[in-house]
Design brief:
Blueprint: H1 3-11, H2 15-27, H3 36-48, H4 52-64, H5 72-84, H6 88-100, H7 108-120, H8 129-140
Helix pairs in contact: 1-2, 2-3, 2-4, 3-4, 4-5, 5-6, 6-7, 7-8
Length: 144
């Protein structure tokens, strides 16, 4: 992808370009260096317009304090919005948050809901550690 072209499209209002560009800056991909200010700028724009991948990226920044103050009260609703729209990694993050009680009370029912949603994506997700994590949690049946 041509980054200057992507920047032009993002500036012109393309939500897809905004989300993709924000993720490039967040993760240091497509030949750009990690730049949390740029990631925040583009991900915020795209997230406000409902781009689920951008919501995940912005939530990830808040959850881990990447270039901004760590704030789970901002991260969780963004993760939830993205997860409801099928974002696998948002579902995984919510499973972790609720199963481990990361700045919220442990809630195994909520964790099971989100990990189950991730597992339900099955064949549409390339096999990865996160999918195995979700499968193991669901198989453990930690209902309380």
């Amino acid at each position: 992808m041509n980054i200057p072209q992507l920047q032009e499209q993002a500036a012109a209002g393309s939500v897809v370009a905004q989300a993709f560009l924000g993720l490039c800056y967040l993760e240091g991909e497509e030949g750009v260096a990690v730049d949390y200010d740029q990631a925040l700028k583009w991900l915020s724009m795209a997230a406000k317009r409902g781009a689920s991948r951008a919501q995940w990226g912005l939530a990830h920044m808040f959850a881990h304090g990447l270039g901004i103050r760590k704030d789970m009260l901002k991260a969780i609703p963004l993760f939830e919005s993205a997860a409801r729209r099928g974002e696998f990694f948002a579902q995984i993050e919510l499973g972790r948050i609720y199963s481990r009680g990361i700045e919220v009370p442990v809630d195994h029912a909520a964790a099971l809901t989100w990990y189950s949603a991730a597992v339900a994506q099955g064949d549409s997700i390339v096999e990865c550690e996160e999918m195995e994590e979700a499968r193991q949690y669901v198989a453990s049946d930690k209902r309380q």
